[in-house]
Amino acid sequence: MHNSSSADVRAWVRMPSGKRLDLLNPTPFDWDDADLALGLARTYRWGGHSAWPLPLSVAQHSLSVMLLRRALAPAPGPLQDLRELLHDAEEGLLGFDAISVIKPFLGDGFRALTQRLEQVVFLRYGLPAWTEKEHRLHKQADRLAAASEAVHVTGWTREEVRRTLKIRAAVLDQDPLVARFGCAPWEPWPPAVAADRFLAELERLKRAVES
To answer: Which H or E element spans position 89?
Structure first.
């Protein structure tokens, strides 16, 4: 049986821009913003399962979480909004959103890989580390999004969300994206639409941070 050394392991991803990302040794310069937006728009939540014709992208989810976090308590500034928008950015680079309950079964190697990707995302965009209060508000917004998606996007009942999925957050009736984008409530967007909307928000927030 052949045992490859770590130097032999190949984990390269070719980005649409032509840049290359080594998933095992990432740097902040290995993608551009459009690469990230498209990666998140083509990475699906809930294992790709959906009661709609299309699954829900991480890009669309990220926009929801940003708006829900802002509704819970206004963020101190655009840098905190940017951190919310990019809270799952490593999934777009990896092209995989693991259902949360299976993550422990993927082991320490997968955890280390995703942590390295998250670190280079924070470094590239100059994101501050979460404070305890900020992370608590983030998780509240993330769980609100998850509970609502489970019902309105994937088709779980509210009772199943509580009893089967063990998500205790409220299920929202109103989609936070409707007021901003004029979209149909809870309907997953096509990847091109999700990528465009995510990229526009990312660029807007970057300009606000720099101004």
So the answer is: helix 89-94
